[in-house]
TrEMBL record:
One of its GO terms (cellular component) is cytoskeleton. This is Prolyl endopeptidase. Residues 503-678 form the Peptidase S9 prolyl oligopeptidase catalytic domain. Residues 87-440 form the Peptidase S9A N-terminal domain. It comes from Rhinopomastus cyanomelas. Its main location: cytoplasm. Serine peptidase whose precise substrate specificity remains unclear. Does not cleave peptides after a arginine or lysine residue. Regulates trans-Golgi network morphology and sorting by regulating the membrane binding of the AP-1 complex. May play a role in the regulation of synaptic vesicle exocytosis.
Length: 715
């Protein structure tokens, strides 16, 4: 069975813990950390942009002329869509030879990923893991081929879905699975009874997060229009019933001193020791948590601390004390505090640990006698281990090549070892372990990728317009000579306090092997240097991210990393704002731009209040309807609004018909306006003037930056 299911394994089980999925890989969240303690702003659980593409979903008027207007609009949209698809079909034929060569190379490189073991969940002697749409059970120490198949998406009629999350009940008699289709944001929860022959016991649609409170009681959140506001409890006893236990009533809460309405996103997490469930009501700027006692799951949830503006917190539990990862206190960055369960109010919070200045606390994991914290400073990753019995703190600098980490699942909080994986854009995930008994870091033996011996990592600081130093991470082949003649691919994101994705991808490895330079610009608006870094690049500070990006590209060229005519810029989703803005302000810096599901029409989108999450987005971009100053500021950098006749770089955009976050019509209109501007400029110049390729590929399948391995390979 293992050989059959894994021979075409495309790693749908990568990125166990992270809430921030990469565009290519699917997530299997086995660790129980859904709300988490990844220290991005709460409410940023949904990836990248937050908008629905269903424009014009308004209540029909009784006026007779309304149906014809809607029909005309729909026909216009369909004509535009068909025109772009015909254009793509004609253009893509030119690249067949290059496409064939690149696909073959990527498929060859993909074999290196087979050395990465699928994430394991261990309960005593039982080990659960997922591969290629199946969930398996094996025994510790057994031969690899001796496994039981507990679940198969194909056998149960979910062939178009992938496994997003697994939860095993404490007595291992039930298993809850979240299944998500590539073409939809909504997921389905399937509850299996694990007997001699596992059977489906219940199917619950539109579920976002879920946790077991007891052996037969499951708490879950429902999702509708990209929002989660309700928590339900379902019991699997003889008297089965479903009950609403919590609803977020302050979905449009106004703070006393703020005119900005703040929507909240609700999710569920189970503490590492399985003592409590936490109901987390989060926005990007504030949060509050309610406790459910797993020993008394029918009791009403208890509030830990009512939300306060600007204060975010997450909860763990150990020895009748709550450990609180929070922004409370100075500086307004994440730190670790604690309080008794019986008196959990903020007035009783005591400081346990605060990171050094300019060090970001990225994540943490709680064990019975230790707390493991992952930190980032100047692009380097560190591991800090707090020993509760001794009160000591052990600090370990992780390998210099590492840019991303993933904690592995540890259902047993009594474990004496913390397992995690390190990776970089050009280095496949490598497994490490930290032993609490030995107080040392252990590198697990895995197959090496030969090219890694030749990959060089450089970290630079670019001086932005206001003298702020902006980090850049650069990768290139050590054996490359004359770097100023090599092609350069610049990456940017800069939004929502989310770090630029630097996890491994085969195409990055391929580019380095073929002589490319990869540069990652950690501009303001992202989260690389903490919450203040994000705050300094959102709302009325958005232009700072653009200035940062320009400074980074100019420094790269000055240091001899390529030159403008060999430079390409790539971005996904909200990263399209800065990439598109640079095309308008400084098109001479790059030759080509590659955008995936880009957000390029900020102003018009933020003025469409019928979109389900426009209100939530105001915390990032501002509210142009309520403030003329905000409207003018957004208009000053919005890519669509600032297109003008000039020499643009070539642009390749991928968009998705089923994208609920980026309105497809906005992308099509951007492309058409950009083409017209480029042609208008060319027509005013002498004959033979260079005209850029501006290409739009509209994918019929896949959703926002979330496609299958095969679709990603084709792209």
């Amino acid at each position: 069975s293992i050989k059959h299911y894994s021979k075409n394994n495309h790693l749908q089980t990568m990125h166990i813990r992270s809430k921030i999925k990469s565009p290519t890989w699917h997530s299997l969240d086995c660790s129980g950390d859904v709300c988490t303690r990844k220290t991005m702003p709460p409410g940023s659980i949904m990836l990248w942009r937050f908008f629905s593409c269903q424009e014009g979903t308004q209540t029909p008027s009784k006026q007779k002329s309304q149906p014809s207007r809607v029909t005309t609009s729909e026909l216009s949209y369909q004509n535009l869509l068909r025109s772009e698809q015909d254009n793509w079909n004609a253009i893509s034929a030119r690249y067949q030879a290059a496409t064939k060569r690149i696909k073959e190379k990527l498929q060859e490189l993909n074999k290196y990923m087979f050395s990465v073991e699928s994430p394991r969940m261990r309960f005593g002697e039982n080990i659960y893991f997922a591969e290629n749409g199946c969930i398996f059970l094996s025994k510790a120490g057994d031969d690899e081929g001796n496994v039981d198949v507990l679940f198969s998406t194909e056998d149960l009629g979910f062939s178009d879905a992938f496994i997003q999350r697994i939860r095993i009940s404490p007595d291992q008699r039930h298993m809850a699975i979240n299944l998500k289709s590539e073409n939809s944001e909504e997921a389905t929860c399937v509850i299996m009874k694990l007997d001699h022959f596992p059977v489906v016991e219940e199917v619950i649609p539109n579920v976002f997060s879920f946790e077991w409170a007891t052996n037969d009681i499951l708490y879950y959140t429902s999702q509708k229009n990209l929002k989660c506001q309700n928590v339900f409890m379902t019991t699997l006893t003889n008297q089965k019933h479903n009950k609403l236990v919590y609803t977020e009533k302050d979905a449009r809460f106004f703070f006393l001193f703020s005119l900005v309405p703040t929507p909240f996103f609700v999710d569920i997490y189970r503490t590492k020791d399985e003592r409590f469930l936490t109901i987390n009501s989060n926005s990007k700027t504030t949060s509050e948590v309610w406790l459910v006692d797993c020993r008394n799951p029918f009791k009403l949830p208890a509030l830990i601390q009512a939300r306060r503006e600007g204060i975010i917190y997450h909860i763990e539990h150990r020895n009748d004390e709550l450990y609180i990862l929070t922004t409370h206190g100075e500086p307004a960055e994440y730190k670790l505090m604690k309080a008794p369960v019986a008196s959990s109010g903020m007035e009783n919070w005591q400081l346990v640990y605060t990171p050094d200045k300019k060090t970001k606390l990225v994540d943490m994991e709680m064990f019975r006698d230790h707390c493991v914290m992952f930190l980032k400073n100047a692009g380097h990753l560190y591991l800090n281990v707090i020993s509760f019995p001794s009160g000591s703190v052990q600090s370990i600098k992780l390998p210099a090549w590492a840019c991303e980490f993933e904690l592995e699942s540890h259902p047993e909080h009594t474990s004496s070892t913390c397992y995690f994986q390190l990776s970089s854009p050009a280095h496949p995930p490598k497994r490490f372990a930290y032993s609490f008994k030995e107080n040392n870091l252990i590198e697990q033996a895995v197959q090496e990728v030969p090219i890694m011996m030749n990959c060089h990592t450089t970290r630079l600081l670019a001086k932005s317009k206001d003298e702020t130093l902006v980090p850049i991470t650069v990768f290139h082949n050590k054996n490359c000579k004359e770097l100023h003649r090599k092609p350069l691919l610049v990456h940017v994101y800069g939004a929502y306090g989310i770090d630029l994705n630097m996890s491994f991808k085969e195409e990055k490895l391929m580019l380095i092997e073929e002589g490319w330079i990869l540069a990652y610009c950690h501009v303001r608006g992202g989260g690389e240097l903490g919450l203040s870094w994000h705050k300094d690049g959102c709302q009325h500070n958005k232009l700072k991210g653009l200035y940062d990006l320009k400074a980074c590209i100019m420094l790269l060229h000055k240091r001899g990393f390529s030159q403008p005519k060999y430079t390409a810029l790539t971005a996904a989703s909200a990263g399209g704002v800065l990439a598109g803005a640079l095309c308008n302000t400084d098109p001479e810096l790059v030759r080509a731009v590659v955008l995936q599901a880009p957000f390029v029409d900020v102003l018009n989108t933020m003025m469409k209040t019928h979109l389900p999450l426009t209100t939530e987005e105001q915390e990032e971009w501002g509210n142009p309807l309520a403030d003329e100053k905000t409207m003018k500021y957004i208009k000053s950098y919005c890519p669509y609004q600032n297109i003008k006749p000039q020499r643009y770089p070539s642009v390749f955009i991928t968009a998705y018909e089923n994208d609920q976050r980026i309105p497809l019509m906005g992308v099509i209109q951007y492309v058409q306006k950009l083409r017209k501007a480029a042609l208008d400029y060319a027509s005013t110049r002498r004959k033979g003037n260079w005209i850029p390729n501006i290409i739009l590929d509209i994918q019929a399948t896949g959703s926002h930056c979330d496609s299958s391995w095969e679709a990603s390979l084709n792209e």
